[in-house]
């Protein structure tokens, strides 16, 4: 079985090498791992300080792990922090992140790569965020007696661990020093296959968003947009499928003085122009629509729609909203609902949310609203915008939900501190 697994890794590497000729993201994946040993050795050279290593699949997992990295920086100033990514979507965005000493791609999980990686890094401890169980690498960590933990794990009955043929994957789980999982189902499933070194540890993203909200940024353009106190709907990480439904649903509310702050997930010029076209069809004049990059405080103050054409500030922009719409739910999956909920505003999202515990938690507490089609989206927006008292109560519940679920970072940090005892 291990040989078949390694063969699948080799075939994947060949396939992505072919795709690299045609797909930019695949090209980044390949180029980022070229000469990885030499690059990593150079980054590690010059210091004998012990290394704590964190691995994140992509950007979303990084945001979960980030509070732990930053807590480790404070708690263990004599250590170096290594951060690895599997996906270019994470590495390319966070390769200059200053909270880690070394940032790189994780090499393909062959036995030789796993052995060389472990020999170069010699980690004192390893932290895996949510998922990605690389069998050869985990086996090497066990052989080297490197304690490793999983943080914010989520497990489902359909996964290989719980199938008759999943023996080597179950073995990998047994090698963890501890598994912190997010929910009761995950804990039950793991105990059912004999895993005892585990506990419910929540999700560090609750800590991260609470930290952001506690230290609000000054964004003069957004402040000017909000200065007249007209209520604002913040639409974050939207895709065309979201915008096609959301903007028409808002058309009648623009006349009632509601305003829209929209931050699309993709920032290509064609996409930005398409959003502007939809807004004009919804009844806004070109002068009422302003892009963040071209705005002044004067033009922002007069606008009814502020189009965010940069990245990095969405989590703070939700603080200007009376309600939020989270994109992605009419495509592959929703984006981060907690970034909005922490500000104490109701959160609306599409049907592709069922794999996200935080979205289910917001629905259960009354702080979130799931929509399934154009009619349900329009009706939900109407209810929130026309009934400020009900919207405020839903927002209060959303904010309380975030605060009640803080603490995952400290749990993981406390366990890591015991590993040296």
Keywords for this entry:
single chain, 421 residues, alpha/beta, 2 domains, 7-stranded parallel β-sheet, 14 strands, 49% helix, 15% strand, globular
How much is the average pLDDT? 94
pLDDT below 50 for ≥5 consecutive residues: which ranges?
A: none
- Major sheet: 7 strands, parallel
CATH homologous superfamily classification of the largest domain: 3-Deoxy-D-manno-octulosonic-acid transferase, N-terminal domain
Beta-strand proportion? 15-25%
Total E-strand runs: 14
Looking at the structure, what is the overall shape? globular
Please describe what this structure looks like:
The protein is α/β, with parallel strands linked by helices and 421 residues long. It has 2 domains: 2-203 and 406-418, 3-Layer(aba) Sandwich (Rossmann fold), CATH 3.40.50.11720; 217-404, Glycogen Phosphorylase B (Rossmann fold), CATH 3.40.50.2000. 49% of the residues lie in helices and 15% in strands. It is built from 20 helices and 14 strands. The chain has helices at residues 2-19, 24-32, 36-44, 59-75, 88-94, 111-121, 135-143, 167-174, 184-192, 205-214, 220-226, 240-254, 269-281, 297-302, 314-317, 338-341, 357-365, 374-386, 388-404, 408-418, and strands at residues 51-56, 80-85, 102-105, 123-129, 148-153, 178-181, 198-200, 232-238, 259-264, 289-291, 305-307, 323-326, 347-349, 368-370. The strands form 2 sheets. The chain has a 7-stranded parallel sheet with strand order 3-2-1-4-5-6-7, with helices on both faces. It has a 7-stranded parallel sheet with strand order 10-11-9-8-12-13-14, with helices on both faces. β13 (347-349), α17 (357-365) and β14 form a beta-alpha-beta unit. α4 (59-75) packs across α5 (88-94) and α12 (240-254) runs parallel beside α13 (269-281). It is globular, with a radius of gyration of 23 Å. The chain starts with a helix and ends with a helix.
């Amino acid at each position: 079985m291990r040989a078949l697994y390694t063969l699948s890794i080799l075939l994947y590497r060949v396939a992505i090498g072919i795709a690299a000729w045609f797909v930019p993201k695949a090209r980044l994946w390949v180029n980022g791992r070229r000469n990885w040993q030499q690059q990593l050795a150079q980054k590690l050279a010059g210091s004998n300080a012990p290394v704590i290593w964190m691995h994140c699949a992509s950007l979303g997992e990084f945001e979960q792990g980030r509070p732990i990295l930053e807590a480790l920086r404070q708690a263990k100033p004599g250590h170096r922090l290594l951060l690895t990514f599997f996906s270019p979507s994470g590495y390319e965005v966070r390769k200059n992140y200053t909270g880690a000493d070394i940032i790189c791609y994780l090499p393909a999980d062959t036995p030789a790569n796993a052995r060389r990686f472990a020999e170069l890094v010699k980690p004192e401890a390893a932290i895996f965020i949510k998922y990605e169980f690389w069998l050869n690498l985990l086996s090497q960590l066990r052989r080297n007696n490197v304690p490793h933990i999983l943080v914010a794990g989520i497990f489902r009955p359909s996964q290989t661990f719980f199938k008759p043929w999943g023996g080597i994957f179950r073995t990998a789980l047994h090698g963890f020093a501890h598994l912190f999982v997010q929910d009761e189902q995950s804990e039950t499933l793991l105990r059912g296959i004999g895993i005892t070194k585990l506990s419910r540890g929540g999700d560090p993203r609750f800590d991260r968003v609470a930290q952001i909200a506690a230290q609000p940024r000054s964004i003069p353009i957004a402040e000017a947009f909000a200065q007249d106190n007209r209520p604002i709907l913040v639409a974050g990480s939207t895709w065309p499928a979201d915008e096609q439904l959301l903007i028409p649903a808002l058309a009648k509310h623009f006349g009632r003085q509601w305003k829209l702050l929209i931050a699309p997930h993709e920032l290509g010029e064609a996409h930005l122009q398409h959003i502007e076209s939809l807004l004009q069809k919804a009844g806004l004049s070109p002068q009422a629509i302003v892009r963040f990059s071209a705005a002044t405080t004067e033009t922002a103050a007069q606008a009814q729609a502020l189009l965010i054409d940069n990245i990095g500030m969405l989590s703070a922009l939700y603080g200007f909203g009376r309600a939020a719409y989270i994109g992605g739910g009419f495509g592959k999956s929703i984006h981060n609902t907690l970034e909005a909920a922490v500000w104490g505003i109701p959160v609306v999202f599409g049907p592709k949310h069922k794999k996200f515990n935080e979205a289910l938690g917001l629905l259960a507490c009354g702080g979130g609203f799931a929509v399934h089609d154009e009619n349900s989206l329009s009706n939900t927006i109407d209810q929130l915008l026309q009934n400020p008292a009900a919207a405020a109560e839903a927002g209060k519940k959303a904010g309380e939900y975030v605060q009640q679920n803080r603490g995952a970072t400290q749990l993981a940090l406390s366990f890591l501190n015991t590993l040296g005892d």
